[in-house]
User: Fold Probable branched-chain amino acid transport ATP-binding protein LivG from Halosimplex pelagicum.
Amino acid sequence: MSAILETDGLVKEFGGLTATDHVNLSIEQGELLSLIGPNGAGKSTLINLITRMLEETEGDIRFEGESIVDLEPHEVVQRGIGKSFQTASIFPDLSVEENANIASLGAEHGSFRFNFLTHRNSYPEVEKRTLSMLDAVGLRDQRDVRAADLPYGDKRRLEIGIALASEPSLLLMDEPTAGMSPEETQATVQLIKDLQEDLDLTILLVEHDMEIVFSISDRIAVLNRGSIIAEGPPAEVQGDPSVQEAYLGGVEL
Ligand SMILES: Nc1ncnc2c1ncn2[C@@H]1O[C@H](COP(=O)(O)OP(=O)(O)OP(=O)(O)O)[C@@H](O)[C@H]1O
Assistant:
């Protein structure tokens, strides 16, 4: 395996507060890495640095071997880093298929770096992308449903589908099961596993639910006060005394 994403001595300071403290994180091609840590540990800050929503104070981030710190957020998406966050925008009055089409169209436009002329106005390509994206998240049968009328779990699946439209090789997911029923949670965990395998996706997951984290992850990185205090396969991280300590009074691991 080789690293698809690496952070190198990454630092982010907010005034006097160091939210990211010399983080060296490496995500291997094809793996599902979960980022965990107590509230305020710096998980969102690290994700926002990777997506370039935040400017680092120091350090570097490399994706597929190349530095991305000089890129704009939309350029990072075009490079192949997708994100599925709770804030992702669905157009509630449009159908599932229309939402998917908009995401696919945006992705097609973004892909002119590959082959601008053949992709220009290529509707069949958009349609193909839309259908494969709806298939990937299991929403093909609901394609005529108004997005606002979808059950909550399916809305979140549509958001994941929208993130897949740009055909990312690395997908960042922030609490994909937040607010879901146990059944929806189970289905979404299965979906994430399937996406990892079927699309050969690398996934960086931020998740508070430890049951999910320990069942789904290939590796776990634990952040505390901006630093990575433990990193490894679930069984290793679970038994790590410094992790227990960081969570003391919080979640039982
Ligand atoms: N824009 C900002 N300005 C100032 N301080 C910030 C900003 N964003 C985050 N912080 C601080 O940086 C630290 C890390 O916050 P961050 O949101 O990254 O943690 P987190 O691990 O995602 O927490 P949670 O699990 O609660 O979402 C916190 O102390 C937070 O108050």
Residues 111-117 have pLDDT under 50 and may be disordered. Residues 1-80+171-253 form a domain with the Rossmann fold fold (CATH 3.40.50.300). The CA atoms of residues 102 and 162 lie 9 Å apart. The chain is about 40% helix and 25% strand.
